[in-house]
Design a protein that fits this description.
2 copies of one chain form a homodimer.
Chain A: H1 38-46, H2 50-60, H3 73-89, H4 107-116, H5 122-142, H6 145-157, E1 162-165, E2 181-185, E3 190-194, E4 202-205, E5 214-223, E6 226-236, E7 248-252, E8 265-269, E9 272-275, E10 285-286, E11 292-293, H7 299-308, H8 312-336, E12 340-343, E13 350-352, H9 357-388, H10 395-426, H11 428-432, H12 438-445, H13 455-476, H14 479-495, H15 500-504, H16 506-509, H17 513-520, H18 523-545, H19 553-562, H20 564-588, H21 593-613, H22 615-620, H23 626-643, H24 647-652, H25 658-661, H26 669-686, E14 692-693, H27 694-716
Parallel strand pairs in A: 1-5, 2-5
Antiparallel strand pairs in A: 2-3, 3-9, 4-8, 5-6, 7-8, 10-11, 12-13
Helix pairs in contact in A: 2-4, 3-5, 4-5, 4-8, 4-9, 5-6, 5-8, 8-9, 8-10, 9-10, 9-20, 9-21, 9-23, 10-12, 10-13, 10-20, 13-18, 13-20, 17-23, 18-20, 18-21, 20-21, 21-23
Chain lengths: ~725, ~725
C-alpha cells in the first residue's frame, strides 16, 4: 500500500551480492539475505483495530481534511470547524457509545481511528479529541443515564460544541488545587458556579474562544459549608446565536505556536446559576436539601477515580505522536535515499545522504524508537480498551493503565518532537518549506509535550508509583522473607561494583571483542541491563529518601526535591524498559523470518542506543565492564550499516499513502530533479563542446610545454 | 536597565542568612555572600561595540520594528520591507562601508548592531543580512572600485533590493558543485548566464520571490572552452516596475516554518546576457578577448578565498542565536521565579517552579552555555573585525577565523533551538501562546541550523581542519623530534588506560569524596579534561584514518565515512573547549569579586555539564576514575542550588528591556495573578464563612462521635 514514488529506489538490483559499501550502489539486501515483507509488517503494525485504522487512513487522505499552510488563525479555525461537521455527519465517533446509547462501546477503535487524523491536520485530531474525547467523555464517564439522554446526542452531532473546562490559568498540572467553585443553594436547588480571581479563569480550552455552547466545568463542590473537592458540572456557555450566557465571559487565547485550527480560549463565571441536576453525579451527588453522598468514601480516591476516566486523552496523544514520528521519518528517509551531495567514492556521482554514517546515526535510532513506540502503544490501547469496555475493569487495572499511559505519553511526545526536528534538519532547506510538512508537524505537536499532563509531571507520577511499588514489596515480605530479600538485594548491590559480564559471561566471553559484541546483542543481555537499571534507579531513590521519613513536611519536601532529577530518571528508565519489551514481544508475533531478523536488528539498535545514552551509569554501577563498554558504539555503527538496505522498507511498512505524506520531496520531486541533472551531466560529458576544467587545462598546458621543451631539446641535439 | 516587573521577586529579604532550602523562602544571596553587580556585568557583556549595541537595542525596542503574530505571509513580507526602508533611511548599515566609500569600515560594529535586531523580528535581522551582509558584501568584497561606484549606494538605500544567488536547489552545502553557468561571448563582450536544469535553479534566496531588482549570481565562469569554477556576477533580475527581466524567471518558496517576513524564492536564467564588466572581478577577470586572469593561481584556493569573504553571515548568526537564547532564558527564568504549582513545604503556599530541582536542571546549564556563547562570540567578532578591517588580515588569520566561525555557528544555533524549546516547555501552556514569544523564536531560529552552512557540514569542516593541523604537527617535527613526540603521545595514550587522577592527584585526593568533588571544580582539572578530550578525539580519528592513505578513492571514502560520527564528535569537543576557554577568559576580565565568584560557579556548571554529557568516554579512556565519576552529577546539583539565588541577576545582565521581552508572562502578568490569588486565599482563610474541607469535616465528625461516645460511657459509669 505504498506510493510508487516513495519506493522509487530500492527496486534496482544492486548486483553486488555482498554487504553494501557506504558509498557504493544503492544498497538492497543481497540475494539470500533477510528481506522485510512490507505488506505483512504493515498489517502487523495496524494491530487489533486494523479495520478501523484502514477506514480512518482513507479518511485522512481526503484533501478536504488537510491542513493548509498560509491561513490566518480565523480561516484555519473556520476550516477545522467545517471538517468537524463533516466527521459528525459521517458519525465517525459513534463507535465510542456504550450499548445503552446504541453503540458498540468500542473505545479502543474510537481512539485508534482518531489518532490517524493527525496526518490530515493535528488541529482536527485535537479538536475532535476535545469534542468527543474530553467533553462528551466527561458526560459519559462522570454523568449518569439522565445526563446521557439529555446531552450526548447533541454532542455527537456537534449541535452542541463543547469545551472541557478543567485547566485554569493558575493550575494546570495540579488539578486538585483548582479554584473555581460550585456552591449549592438549597433555596433554589441550583449550583452557583464562580471564578474567584483572575488565575482561576478556565484557560487553554479548545472551543472556548468561539464555538462552545456548553462546557463540562471542573469546580470545587461546596454544600452545607463543606468543600468536597473538584467535581464536574455541565454549564451552558453560549446561546444558539453564539452570544455568551449571562455571567459567563470568554477570552481568546490568540495565535499559538501551532494547532491554530482550534479556538483555544478562556472562560470565567460570575455567580452563574445552573440546576442541581447539572452536576455529573456518578461519583458524588447532592440531594435537594444539599446533603452530599458518594459511592467512594475517601475524597482523595474519589478525585483520582474521576480523573482516571480521562486517561483516554493521554492514550490518544501517545498514538498520534507515534504516527507523527512515522510520517516525519518516512519523509526524511525517502528524501535521504534520493538526495545527493558531495562526491566521495566516485568523481562523477555524488553520494546519497542516507549513505553518510552521520545521516544514518541521526535517523535510524529514532526509527527504532518509533517502532518500539508503535508496539508499546498497541499494548496501551488494548489495556485502555479492556478497562473501558468493562471486560478488564478493576482498580488495579485502572492504576496500571494510568501508569502505563503516564510513562508512554511523555516518551512518545518527546520522541515525536525530537524526531520531527531531526528530520526537518536532515532535509536542509527543503525541510524548512511548509510544503514539506515537517515544520508544521513540529509546530502542531509542540504542545503535546505539556498538555493532557505535562511530561515532567507525568514522569514524576510514574516515579512515585514505582517508589510505592518498591516500598509495598518491602512491606509485603514476611519476617522469614526479609532475610531472603536482603540477601538478594545484597547480591544485586554487590554486583553493582563488579562488572556484570565477569559474573555471567566468563564461559562465553574469553576476552574476544567479537564475542563480546555479539553478546551485547543477546536479548537476554539487553533485557538484564534495562531491567536491572530500572530497578536499581528506583532502589537508589528509595534509599536516599528514607531519611525523609518522620521529618517535618518542609524538610521532607526538601529531601524529596533534592532527588527529583533522579526520580524522573528512574521513570524514564522504566519507560525505556516498557518500550524495549513491547518491541521484543511484537517481534515474537511475526511469522515471516526475514522480517523478524531485520526487526531484531532494529530492536538491538534500540537496546544498544538506550544503553549507550546511559553508558556512564552502567559503567559506574559496574554493570558493564570498560572492555564491553568500548564496543557499544562500534556495534551501533555496525547495526546502522546492516539496517541501511532495509530503511525504505521499514518506513514503507508505516502504510503512509501520498495523501498522507503530501511532501513533494518525498513524492518524486527530488527524484525527478536528480534524474534530470544526472542525464544532463552524462550528455554533457559525452559531447565534444563540454568545457575543460581549469585544472585539466593547466595539466594539459604543462604537458604541452614539457612536450615542446622535449622537442626543443630534440632539435638542438643533432 | 531592567523592567521592574522582571525583577519582581528578589528584592524581598530572605532573612535566613543561610544557603536557601529548596522549598524555603525565595532565595537571595545571604548577607556577606557574593552578589552579581548586574550593571557592571551587563556592560562587560556589551563588549567592544557597546555603543553600537546600545543604539541597536534602542532601535530593537521600537514597536514599528516588532514581529506581529497573526499576519499572512504576504502581510508579514510587506511589513518587513517597510522596516527595511526605515533602516535604510536611518543609514543603519553605513558603518560597514570602507573608507574609500566614505564609511568607517566598522565591520564588527555593523554585525554587532544587526545581531540585536533578532529580538525585534528575526525576519528583519535576516532580510537586512541578505541585503547588506550578503548582496552588498558580495559587491564590496568580490567586486572592484567600478562596481562599488555603480551599485553600492543603491544597495545601501534599498533603491536596488538584491538577492544573493548562491544556493541552488540541487547544491547548498557543496557550493563548488553549483551548476549555473556564465559563458563568455567575445563577439558581444557579454556573459551568457544560464540554468541548465531544474536542480540548478537558485533557491531559498531572500528577496528573490518579490523584491529583488538585482542578484549577485554565483555561476561557473566559462571562457575559451575552459571552466574556471564558481565566480560571482551582477545580474539585474527585475525592472523598476518589478517586472522580470527578459530570460529571468522567479518562483516563490511559499510559506516556511518561520522567517515568513522574508520573500524567499527561486531564480532561473535562460541564456541571460550581461556585460563583461558585470563579473565581480577581484579574484578573477576576463579580458575583452576572453582571456582569463586571476591573482590567485590555484583554482581551489581562489574558490575558497572568494567564499571566505562571506564568513560574516556565520559570525552574525552566532551572535543572533546567542541573543535569542538570552531572550528565551530571560522569559522562562523570570516566569519560573513567579509561577507557583503544587504545595510542598507549606500546606498553604505553593512552590515556585524555579525551586524545583528538575526545573533548575532544565534551565541553568543552558544559561551557563549561553554565557559561554556570549564570551566566545565576542572573540569571534573581534577576530572577524581584525581580518576585515585589514588590521590583522593574513591567510592564516582568515583560516582561523573561518574555523572559529565554523565551530561556533553550529554550536550556538543548536543551543538556541534547544534552549528556546526547553524554555517553551518549561512555561507550559503559557509557553505555547504566541504572545509569550518562545514559539515564534523557535520557528524563526529553526533554519539557522541549516542555512549559511549546514551545521553538520560546518562541523565536518572543523573536524577536517583539526585533522590537518594534527597531521601538520606530525609532519613538521624533525627527525630528532619524532622520538620525543612519540614518547609524549605514548604517555598520553597510556594515561588513557590509567585513571587520570591516579597520576596527578594521589597527594591531594586521599579518597575523600569532598576533596574529590572540590577538585572537579578546579579550573585546571576542567581545562585538562576538555583539552585532552579535544586532542585525543582528533588523534583517535587520525589513527583510524591512516589505513585510508594510498587506497583507491572509493575505498578511502568508505573508511573516512566509517569514522564520520567520531569526526563530528571531535569537532564538537573542540567547540566545547573554545567556549569553556572563552568563558574563563571573560571571567578573568571582571573586576567585581562577587560577580566573578558567581560567574565562576556558572563556568564550573558548564565545565561539569560538558564532562557529564561525555562521562562514559572519560571513564572508558581512563581520564576520570569511577570514584570521581560518581561525584560529577552530585556536584552539578550542588551548583544548581548555589546558583539559584543569582538566576534572576544573571538573566537581568542580558540587558533585555520590556520592548525586547514583550512576553506578558515575564512582564508582570503572572506576578499580578499570583498576588491576587494569594490575597484571596489569605482573606478567605481569615473569614468565618470559608468552607471546611471534606477531610477536615470528617475528622471533626469522628472527633464529635468519639466525644459523644465518651460522654455515653461517662453517663453509664456513675
Amino acid at each position: 500500500m505504498t506510493a510508487p514514488a516513495a519506493r522509487a529506489v530500492p527496486s534496482l538490483p544492486s548486483g553486488s551480492g555482498v554487504t553494501p559499501t557506504p558509498t557504493g550502489p544503492i544498497p538492497v539486501p543481497p540475494p539470500g539475505a533477510p528481506r522485510v515483507d512490507v505488506e505483512a509488517l504493515s498489517t502487523t503494525l495496524l494491530g487489533r483495530w486494523a479495520d478501523v485504522r484502514r477506514a480512518a487512513r482513507a479518511r485522512a487522505a481526503r484533501p478536504e481534511l488537510h491542513r493548509l499552510d498560509d491561513l490566518t488563525v480565523a480561516q484555519h479555525r473556520e476550516r477545522v470547524l467545517e471538517q468537524m461537521h463533516l466527521l459528525a455527519r459521517e458519525g465517525v465517533s459513534r463507535i465510542m457509545l456504550p450499548e445503552s446509547l446504541g453503540g458498540p462501546n468500542d473505545n479502543g477503535g474510537n481512539v485508534a481511528g482518531f489518532e490517524e487524523l493527525v496526518v490530515a491536520d493535528p488541529s482536527l485530531q485535537i479538536k475532535a479529541g476535545v469534542q468527543w474525547g474530553l467533553y462528551t467523555s466527561a458526560i459519559l464517564q462522570l454523568g449518569t443515564a439522565e445526563h446521557h439522554a439529555r446531552w450526548i446526542e447533541d454532542a455527537m452531532t456537534l449541535a452542541t460544541p463543547g469545551a472541557f473546562a478543567m485547566t485554569e490559568t493558575g493550575h494546570g498540572s495540579d488539578v486538585q488545587s483548582l479554584a473555581t467553585t460550585a456552591t449549592y443553594d438549597p433555596e433554589t436547588q441550583e449550583w452557583v458556579v464562580h471564578t474567584p480571581f483572575r488565575a482561576a479563569w478556565k484557560d487553554y480550552l479548545g472551543n472556548a474562544a468561539l464555538h462552545a455552547r456548553a462546557a463540562t466545568v471542573f469546580a470545587r463542590l461546596i454544600t452545607n459549608g463543606v468543600d468536597h473537592g473538584v467535581h464536574c458540572f455541565y454549564v451552558p456557555v453560549r446561546d444558539e446565536h453564539g452570544a455568551m450566557m449571562p455571567g459567563v465571559r470568554s477570552e481568546d487565547d490568540g495565535p499559538k505556536g501551532g494547532l491554530n485550527g482550534i479556538d483555544n480560549g478562556r472562560l470565567a463565571f460570575d455567580h452563574v446559576r445552573i440546576p442541581r441536576t447539572n452536576l455529573l453525579n456518578r461519583y458524588g451527588d447532592v440531594a435537594p436539601d444539599g446533603t452530599y453522598t458518594s459511592p467512594i468514601d475517601s475524597p482523595g480516591r474519589r478525585f483520582f477515580t474521576m480523573l482516571g476516566t480521562l486517561v483516554q486523552g493521554r492514550v490518544s496523544l501517545d498514538g498520534a505522536a507515534n504516527r507523527a514520528s512515522q510520517l516525519a521519518l518516512h519523509i526524511a528517509i525517502t528524501y535521504a535515499s534520493q538526495r545527493r551531495q558531495f562526491t566521495g567514492a566516485s568523481p562523477t556521482e555524488e553520494t546519497v545522504l542516507l549513505d553518510y554514517q552521520s545521516h544514518l546515526a541521526r535517523l535510524l535510532p529514532r526509527l527504532a524508537e518509533t517502532y518500539a513506540g508503535a508496539f508499546a502503544h498497541e499494548q496501551l490501547l488494548i489495556a485502555f480498551d479492556d478497562v473501558f469496555s468493562g471486560r478488564g475493569d478493576s482498580p488495579e487495572a485502572r492504576e496500571d493503565l494510568e501508569t502505563l499511559a503516564a510513562a508512554l505519553k511523555p516518551t512518545s511526545t518527546r520522541l515525536a518532537l525530537d524526531t520531527v526536528q531531526e528530520c526537518r534538519e536532515a532535509c536542509g532547506g527543503q525541510g524548512f518549506l511548509a510544503e514539506n510538512r515537517l515544520v508544521g508537524l513540529h509546530q502542531d505537536l509542540d504542545v503535546y509535550a505539556t498538555f493532557e499532563g505535562d511530561n515532567t509531571v507525568l514522569l514524576q507520577l510514574v516515579g512515585k508509583r514505582l517508589l510505592s511499588d518498591y516500598t509495598d514489596e518491602l512491606r509485603s515480605i514476611d519476617r522469614a522473607g526479609v532475610g531472603r530479600f536482603i540477601a538478594q538485594r545484597a547480591e544485586a548491590l554487590s554486583r553493582r561494583h563488579t562488572p556484570w559480564n565477569r559474573l555471567v559471561q566468563t564461559a562465553s566471553d574469553a576476552g574476544s571483542m567479537r564475542r563480546s559484541s555479539e553478546s551485547l546483542r543477546l536479548p537476554e543481555f539487553q533485557e538484564a541491563m534495562l531491567t536491572e537499571r530500572a530497578r536499581l534507579k528506583v532502589e537508589e531513590v528509595a534509599l536516599a529518601l528514607r531519611s525523609a521519613a518522620g521529618k517535618e513536611p518542609a524538610e521532607a519536601a526538601a529531601i524529596v526535591n533534592k532527588h527529583q532529577v533522579e526520580l524522573l530518571d528512574a521513570a524514564r528508565a522504566h519507560a525505556d524498559l516498557v518500550r524495549w519489551e513491547a518491541f521484543t514481544a511484537g517481534i515474537a508475533g511475526i511469522d515471516d523470518e526475514g522480517t523478524r531478523l531485520v526487526l531484531t536488528d532494529l530492536r538491538d539498535l534500540l537496546g544498544l542506543t538506550l544503553i549507550e545514552r546511559d553508558l556512564a551509569w552502567f559503567l559506574l554501577d559496574g554493570m558493564i565492564s570498560a572492555q564491553r563498554g568500548r564496543t557499544v558504539s562500534k556495534d551501533i555503527r555496525r547495526l546502522l550499516w546492516r539496517l541501511r538496505p532495509h530503511a525504505l522498507d521499514l518506513v514503507d511498512a508505516f502504510g503512509l499513502e501520498p495523501g498522507h505524506v503530501r511532501a513533494p520531496i518525498a513524492l518524486g520531486a527530488e527524484r525527478e530533479r536528480q534524474d534530470e541533472a544526472a542525464a544532463y551531466v552524462r550528455a554533457r560529458r559525452a559531447s565534444a563542446d563540454a568545457p575543460l576544467s581549469e585544472k585539466a587545462q593547466k595539466a594539459a598546458l604543462a604537458e604541452a610545454e614539457r612536450a615542446s621543451a622535449r622537442q626543443g631539446r630534440g632539435r638542438r641535439r643533432p
